[in-house]
Design a protein that fits this description.
Structural class: mainly alpha
Largest sheet: none
Distance between the termini: 45 Å
Radius of gyration: 15 Å
Order of helices and strands: HHHH
Shape: flat
Amino acid sequence: MGGQPAKESGAWGAFARLFEGGATAFGEKAAVAALEEGEDHGLKLYRDDLEKLDPASRTLVEIDLLPAQERTHRDMSALKHTLH
């Protein structure tokens, strides 16, 4: 489709690396809460940009990517609640 994939993970990658080893420093609850917040951000990005996509890409996001992101968010939320 003419696009170029990102070569780096960007700000989210740096954030994820910070918390990857941070469970010890920040505690499990804080690390899981931060991961859930990241999943919130991902959901917002998918939803905010749906209208900008061509029909085939929009279908892919709505049928595959967005439901997977929603499941991951639910999993992080459930995990967070078991730790509190």
